[in-house]
Automatic annotation (TrEMBL):
<feature type="binding site">
    <location>
        <position position="64"/>
    </location>
    <ligand>
        <name>(6R)-10-formyltetrahydrofolate</name>
    </ligand>
</feature>
<feature type="binding site">
    <location>
        <begin position="11"/>
        <end position="13"/>
    </location>
    <ligand>
        <name>N(1)-(5-phospho-beta-D-ribosyl)glycinamide</name>
    </ligand>
</feature>
<comment type="pathway">
    <text>Purine metabolism; IMP biosynthesis via de novo pathway; N(2)-formyl-N(1)-(5-phospho-D-ribosyl)glycinamide from N(1)-(5-phospho-D-ribosyl)glycinamide (10-formyl THF route): step 1/1.</text>
</comment>
<keyword id="KW-0808">Transferase</keyword>
<dbReference type="InterPro" id="IPR036477">
    <property type="entry name" value="Formyl_transf_N_sf"/>
</dbReference>
<dbReference type="InterPro" id="IPR002376">
    <property type="entry name" value="Formyl_transf_N"/>
</dbReference>
<feature type="active site" description="Proton donor">
    <location>
        <position position="108"/>
    </location>
</feature>
<comment type="similarity">
    <text>Belongs to the GART family.</text>
</comment>
<feature type="domain" description="Formyl transferase N-terminal">
    <location>
        <begin position="2"/>
        <end position="181"/>
    </location>
</feature>
<feature type="binding site">
    <location>
        <begin position="89"/>
        <end position="92"/>
    </location>
    <ligand>
        <name>(6R)-10-formyltetrahydrofolate</name>
    </ligand>
</feature>
<feature type="site" description="Raises pKa of active site His">
    <location>
        <position position="144"/>
    </location>
</feature>
<dbReference type="Pfam" id="PF00551">
    <property type="entry name" value="Formyl_trans_N"/>
</dbReference>
<dbReference type="GO" id="GO:0004644">
    <property type="term" value="F:phosphoribosylglycinamide formyltransferase activity"/>
</dbReference>
<protein>
    <recommendedName>
        <fullName>Phosphoribosylglycinamide formyltransferase</fullName>
        <ecNumber>2.1.2.2</ecNumber>
    </recommendedName>
</protein>
<comment type="function">
    <text>Catalyzes the transfer of a formyl group from 10-formyltetrahydrofolate to 5-phospho-ribosyl-glycinamide (GAR), producing 5-phospho-ribosyl-N-formylglycinamide (FGAR) and tetrahydrofolate.</text>
</comment>
<keyword id="KW-0658">Purine biosynthesis</keyword>
<dbReference type="InterPro" id="IPR004607">
    <property type="entry name" value="GART"/>
</dbReference>
Length: 203
């Protein structure tokens, strides 16, 4: 399965996908890394791995539609079959979401539907939840919503700071994203309407 990974920054989830794809027998490869920022550190990770990169900046396009058409064209030209959002910080329009419907996934640092949006770790601490985590989901028009593929929970410890909690969650993100890609690539996860059916549900 050919992946297109969309980033805006650090790219540690991109790195986890690159590493997973390098393992023998992994059923996917990264065909293109696309960033909306030329200074995204993740672009260097892609370069170091010999993966094609593209920068498509919203600033170079007259309006959201033109920006997203340029992204879509780059993804199509690279033969991308599944688009993975990995710290991509621009909201995508309904046009893009529908264009890639069921072929567009995101990783979010909370146990959705809890804490959509930004600052999830601070908000989890503030709410006093005992468990927090991450979610890989299919993208729908509402932000941080859509059929859930994979989740992992971590305990929240009494002495946690935003940083310590974020680190614990990030470790799980790096496990969950490759797993979600593998499940889709191997046909072990199937999108049926607004739910994802996993292997065991398919009998
Ligand atoms: C991750 O926490 C991801 O869940 C969120 O943005 C962060 C991106 O980190 N959507 P990185 O760029 O993958 O290191």
């Amino acid at each position: 399965l050919k992946l297109g990974v969309l980033i805006s920054g650090r790219g540690s989830n991109l790195q986890a996908l690159i590493d997973a794809c390098a393992a023998p027998g992994f059923p996917a490869s990264v065909a293109l890394v696309l960033s909306n920022r030329a200074d995204a550190a993740g672009l260097e990770r892609a370069g170091a791995a010999g993966i094609a990169t593209a920068v498509v900046s919203h600033r170079d396009h007259a309006g959201k539609q033109a920006f997203e058409e340029a992204m879509s064209a780059a993804l199509e030209a690279a033969g991308v079959e599944l688009v993975c959002l990995a710290g991509f910080m621009r909201l995508l329009s309904p046009w893009f979401v529908e264009r890639w419907r069921d072929r567009l996934i995101n990783i979010h640092p909370s146990l959705l539907p809890a804490f959509p949006g930004l600052d999830t770790h601070a908000r989890a601490l503030e709410a006093g939840v005992r468990f927090h985590g991450c979610t890989v989901h299919l993208v729908r028009q509402d932000m941080d919503a859509g059929p859930i593929l994979v989740q992992a929970a971590v305990p929240v410890r009494p002495d946690d700071t935003e940083e310590s909690l974020a680190d614990r969650v990030l470790e799980q993100e790096h496990r969950c994203y490759p797993l979600a890609v593998r499940l889709l690539a191997e046909g072990r996860a199937r999108v049926v309407g607004e739910r994802v059916l996993l292997d065991a549900d398919m009998t």
